[in-house]
Amino acid sequence: MTDSNNVKNSTAGASIEFKNITKQYRGQQSPTVDNLSLEIPAGELVAFVGPSGCGKTTSLKMINRLVEPTRRPDFNQH
């Protein structure tokens, strides 16, 4: 399937889903990313936009598994 600009559209790939993910680095008073929930369907294009220090890069690193989320004591993984 192609769009009007002859760009091939595809839904191949993996979807991404985060539910209530938090990342707090050692020595920080507050989390860099707190309670992030998002769902990105396969094939979707997404941009993270925000001011410096708001957690964009950390969120992308967690999606790519370059850093692991912080586990909360009340967090149960199924």
| Portion in strands | 15-25%
State the helix count: 1
Low-confidence parts lasting 5 or more residues at pLDDT below 50? 73-78
Q: Average pLDDT, to the nearest integer?
A: 83
Number of strands: 2
The run of helices and strands is EEH
- How much is the radius of gyration in Å? 16 Å
Helix content: 10-25%
Structure notes:
InterPro entries: ABC_transporter-like_ATP-bd, P-loop_NTPase. This is Glycine betaine/carnitine/choline transport ATP-binding protein OpuCA. Residues 34-70 form the ABC transporter domain. It is a single chain. The chain has 78 residues and is of the alpha+beta class. It has a domain at 16-63. It is 10% helix and 21% strand. The protein contains one helix and two strands; from the N terminus they run E-E-H. Strands 1-2 form a two-stranded antiparallel sheet. The longest helix has 8 residues, at 56-63. The radius of gyration is 16 Å and the shape is elongated.
Give a short summary of the structure:
This protein is α+β, with helices and mostly antiparallel strands. It has a domain at 16-63. 10% of the residues lie in helices and 21% in strands.
Topology, please?
Layout lengths: L15 E8 L9 E8 L15 H8 L15
Antiparallel strand pairs: 1-2
InterPro entries: ABC_transporter-like_ATP-bd (IPR003439), P-loop_NTPase (IPR027417)
Protein name: Glycine betaine/carnitine/choline transport ATP-binding protein OpuCA
Family: Belongs to the ABC transporter superfamily.
Key structural traits:
single chain, 78 residues, alpha+beta, two-stranded antiparallel ribbon, ABC_transporter-like_ATP-bd, ATP-binding, transferase, ATP binding, transport
